[in-house]
Write a structure and sequence with these properties.
disordered N terminus; D-Maltodextrin-Binding Protein, domain 2; 607 residues; 27% helix; 2 domains; globular; alpha+beta; five-stranded mixed beta sheet; Dipeptide-binding Protein, domain 3
Length: 607
């Protein structure tokens, strides 16, 4: 049982082309846009920031204790940067440089000598929307209730936190669970500082009381009475739109934090029927920030001359912090053979995937050679790239792939098909139906198989079927795509664990990783050692060895670098959004996630 104790010891922040303002005139050909146009007239356009691509249906409520509210604009807790529009974390994560900016906290956190605990001071100016102060008690009760009822955040952090102690009203110490005399995972203690919301203790106790301590009921409670500490609160929600309104008394306007209120009075998210409707609204200037994949996004400004842009003016246009990956199922005949896996991976034309499936919204593997790390500078600095250069490949190397198979004695039969011990090699390559970029990527994987004598047939089942099969112990799929973790304080360790840890395959319901069922004793040891190692040189060696194992055994292979969030802005109403090279160091996460919310204090009206 996690212990939470109070002690009282006294009181205790590529240039983008400037496009001319214009009025976009379009025919509204979508019911979703018609609905949105009606909604837009109800809010002052010069006070409202419209966002698209996060919300796809009516919300279930405002309960930040739950992960089942379907309220993306207000309630999203994630490693790459928790959404801090309405509820807040101790620190804001910045994926651009792996830094953590104080939010409810004040100043830097402080590790103990052996990284067994973290001291965090709280900002004494922080207040709830009801005017009461945010205190250490709120932090402790939030963690206590999360772990007592094992909501999503409680389950994520309970294995790593032994206790949280309060020292007065505005200081806490988070103590790590110990294993073999060392902290279980200091990296996850860091992530605790940036991922879970801090909720008001009194409200949480009321939530528990009114639901009679029924954890399931607590998670379903819509929580329309929930206090919040963030700059925005509920204004309106139905099945067509969700609107937040600025809290004019927001504590963050104090000089110890932002020093002012965010610029837009309203944040609004229309519920569009599909991406096409959202893109149409973006073109018309009825959406300001879009987190939708838009094919050939550069045509907005290069061809159509619209005041639309991305974080970068040139490919890849954004930060590809996630690595959509094709897994080999080790239970499929022949895929337990490293030569077959490596030959398939080398033969795939990744440039074609990036050009066609991603319309160049990904760095290439020539620009960022493959490893286990995403393209951010922080992750690329964790390993010795020169030491693994001989193992890296950029793809479309049909000659080498065929040589690998020939040398391994996996030869072609009279029909030109490869055989292993007399069995013709034939596989399926799968992605969820309707995920167009993933489907296109799998088609290119299948085409590579044809060039090396291995039949690969694509199948695209419905997501409801796909996710059920992938996340259970299975031998039904041969080659299939899943995502990887994006940036977070625990990366790239978390992604290495996700891709290769042997702890996940035995699970009856595995949403955590290693869906191809790869096992390697040394990688398990590395996964255990990295979080407890503090020597930079040893860490570099461990990360480099992990990459070497991955590229040698090829249990899976990354197909592209995908943005954690797409970030496309229309500057016909608002301008001043984050852009590459502007010196502000604000991540391109649609002005809401982690330190990206700094954009709401930077933007300004065009006129």
């Amino acid at each position: 049982m996690v212990k939470f104790t109070y002690y009282y010891l006294g009181g205790q922040h590529m240039k983008k082309k400037v496009l001319s303002v214009f009025v976009a005139i379009v025919m509204v050909m979508s019911l979703s846009v018609n609905v949105f146009a009606s909604a837009a007239t109800e809010l002052p356009r010069n006070e409202t920031l419209y966002i698209a691509g996060l919300q796809w249906g009516a919300i279930n409520g405002w309960n930040a204790f739950s992960a089942d509210m379907n309220n993306a604009l207000a309630v999203t807790q994630q490693g790459q940067g928790t959404r801090v529009t309405m509820f807040e974390t101790l620190y804001m994560y910045n994926m651009l440089d792996n830094s953590m900016v104080p939010l409810l906290a004040e100043g830097d956190y402080v590790w103990s000598a052996c990284r067994t605990s973290i001291l965090v001071n709280l900002n004494p100016n922080a207040k709830w929307s009801d005017g009461t102060p945010v205190t250490a008690r709120d932090v402790i009760v939030t963690a206590e209730m999360s772990m007592k009822y094992m909501n999503t955040q409680g389950a994520a952090f309970e294995p790593f936190i032994e206790s949280i102690l309060a020292f007065g009203d505005h200081a806490i110490v988070i103590n790590a669970k110990m294993e073999r005399g060392v902290p279980a995972n200091p990296l996850m203690l860091l992530q605790f500082l940036t991922q879970p919301y801090i909720l008001q203790a009194d409200w949480l106790l009321e939530l528990e009381a009114r639901n009679n301590g029924n954890g399931s009921a607590m998670l379903q409670d819509p929580a329309e009475d929930i206090p919040y500490s963030g700059p925005y609160g509920p204004f309106f929600a139905d099945d067509t739109r969700i609107i937040l309104i600025r809290n004019e008394n927001y504590w963050g306007q104090h000089a110890s934090m932002w020093g002012k209120l965010p610029v837009p009075k309203y944040l609004a998210h229309p519920v569009f029927e599909d991406n096409s409707a959202g893109d149409l609204a973006l073109r018309a200037g009825m959406v300001d920030v879009s987190q939708q994949f838009t094919a050939n996004v550069q045509n907005y400004w290069l061809v159509d001359g619209l005041p639309i842009s991305t974080f970068m003016d040139e490919p890849p246009y954004g930060i590809g912090s996630s690595l959509p990956t094709a897994y080999f199922n080790m239970g499929s005949y022949g895929l337990d053979n490293v030569y077959i896996r490596r030959a398939i991976a080398l033969a795939v034309d990744y440039d074609a995937i990036i050009a066609n499936a991603m319309t160049n919204q990904s760095a290439t593997f020539q620009q960022v050679p493959r490893s286990l790390m995403n393209p951010t500078a922080a992750e690329q600095a964790t390993f010795d790239s020169a030491a693994v250069a001989h193992l890296q490949w950029a793809g479309n190397d049909i000659e080498l792939a065929n040589k690998i198979l020939d040398d391994a004695g996996i030869l072609r039969n009279a029909d030109g098909r490869r055989e292993l011990d007399g069995v013709v090699l034939s596989y399926t390559a799968l992605a969820p139906q309707g995920w167009s970029d993933w489907e296109a990527a799998m088609e290119i994987v299948a085409a590579a198989g044809e060039l090396i004598g291995i039949e690969i047939v694509t199948l695209f089942p419905d997501w409801s079927v796909y996710q059920t099969v992938v996340t259970t112990p299975q031998n039904d799929y041969d080659i299939f795509m899943m995502w990887t973790d994006s940036s977070s304080p625990s990366q790239p360790w978390g992604r290495i664990r996700q891709l290769m840890s042997s702890e996940f395959p035995p699970l009856d319901s595995n949403w955590s990783g290693n869906w191809g069922h790869f096992t390697n004793a040394r990688i398990d040891e590395i996964i255990r050692l990295i979080p407890i190692e503090s020597d930079p040189d040893v860490l570099t060696a461990l990360y480099t060895e992990a990459v070497e194992i991955y590229l040698t055994y090829v249990p899976s292979f990354t197909l592209m670098y995908r943005p954690a969030n797409f970030h496309v802005v229309n500057e016909s109403v608002w301008t001043g959004f984050t852009e590459y090279g502007d010196g502000r160091n604000v991540p391109p996460l649609h002005a809401t996630d982690g330190y990206a919310i700094a954009d709401l204090y930077n933007i300004r009206l065009v006129r």
